[in-house]
Write a structure and sequence with these properties.
It is built from 7 helices and 9 strands, in the order βαβαβαβαβββαβαβα. By secondary structure, the protein is an alpha/beta fold. The chain has a single domain (about 1-249), classed as TIM Barrel, CATH 3.20.20. Helix 3 (about 100-115) crosses helix 4 (about 130-140). The protein is globular, with a radius of gyration of 17 Å.
Length: about 250
Amino acid sequence: MKIAIRMDDISPDMDWDKFLNFTGLLKEHGLTALLGVVPDNRDEKLSIDPPREDFWDVIKGLSKDGFTIAMHGHTHIYTTDKGGIFPLNRKSEFAGLPYDMQCSMISDGRKILSDHGIETDIFMAPSHSYDHNTLRALSDNGFKVITDGFGDRPYSYKKITFYPISYKKSRSLKSKRDGIVTFVVHANTMTDKEYESYKRIIKEGKCVPYRELSDLSPVKAGACYRLREYLMALSKRTASDMIRLIRRK
């Protein structure tokens, strides 16, 4: 199994040292990642450094270097406690909102990116949470790809192609199967231990440029596939909830 990297929570006020260290590590080894850019970040938890005025130039420069750009939500502010149709978490910027509202948010986010010279048809949902209205709104706004779901190759569902993330990283690293799965990186909160772990994985040659996912033909996902994926996400969330509960005691 090969590993592709996606980086979440990219904004003008992110932790720039960690972001540049990690993208520098990737470039050093001839790798590129998917960058989830928040069009209009209003989430204080993502605000680490003073906003850099050259943010959009940096992103466009990385795009020219082969990095892939995704729209990571709109403002990254959670509006509901819904997990949607991929319930890894109990919060969402989109899931549970009416179609018209979601469509407006997605349209506005895409316009912000476009006004800054960034064109993309890839969407990355904050906390991985979206619903059927989100898929419809994305399709109506020209988005063709979502970076989410579980699996080892792209799959198509309701006019959208999904690029799956890893269900369990340790299992993906040990797998001998063909295919590519995505590891989710949050540079803002990355510890030195996590950085060294990724450094080792990269040096071992287990990673590929993110764009290689687009070279794989998507399989069609039916109702059974989506139900299995839903249950996997729900079970992973339940396990995480139990671990947090135990740690509090």
